[in-house]
Amino acid sequence: MKRILISILLCALLQSFFQFTSACAAEQASVNLAISDLIIRKQGSQVDFRVIVGNIGNADAENLMGNLSVALFVFDRSNGKWHELKRWSDIDRIAAGEKVARDYLPVVTKNPQILSGKFTLQAAIELKYAGAVKISKESLERSYPGKNGKNP
Question: Beta 46-55 vs 31-43: how paired, if at all?
Fold first, then answer.
């Protein structure tokens, strides 16, 4: 009887231990990057494009320099292709729950899509070596003007 009771207690302890370790594994620290927003601001002939990248994980993203790049593209309606406007690779760290922004303020743009006043932009993030970094939202598109002719 004593052996049975000890066996039952031992099984209960082992079961609790395995549930605890699996719960800890589920809560491991993780880096999860996402394009949070793409903002288009246009007043008269001045344009400003802002790309915001966030770390929605629970661990800091570090040593990203040379690994993470953020790119901004404009869609060319005449040939159906995306053309790169700007690429940033100077982001080294994004703390957990934080965001970083990069602005593109072309002094004079020669891009016919932007000059036309109707264009679509795409922001995208890329990693050369993903490692333990997850990307949950790698790109985002915005059109100008937005719905109902308003600036998004």
Answer: antiparallel
Q: What pairing do the DSSP bridges indicate for beta strands 31-43 and 133-137?
A: parallel
At residue 106 the predicted structure's pLDDT band, cuts being 50, 70 and 90, is confident
pTM of the shown model: 0.75
Residue 109 has pLDDT above 80, yes or no: no
Q: Given pLDDT bands bounded at 50, 70 and 90, which one contains residue 117?
A: confident
Average pLDDT of the chain, as a whole number: 81
Report whether pLDDT(35) > 60: yes
How far, CA to CA in Å, does 125 sit from each of 49, 85, 118, 130?
Answer: 15, 14, 24, 11
Give the number of other Cβ atoms within 10 Å of residue 33's Cβ.
25
Dihedral angle at the C-alpha atoms of 100, 129, 63, 125, nearest 10 degrees? Answer: -10
Strands 99-104 and 46-55: antiparallel
Q: How many CB atoms lie within 10 A of CB 87?
A: 14
Residue 83 near residue 110 (C-beta atoms within 8 A): no
DSSP per residue over 110-129, as a string? --HHHHHT-EEEEEEEEES-
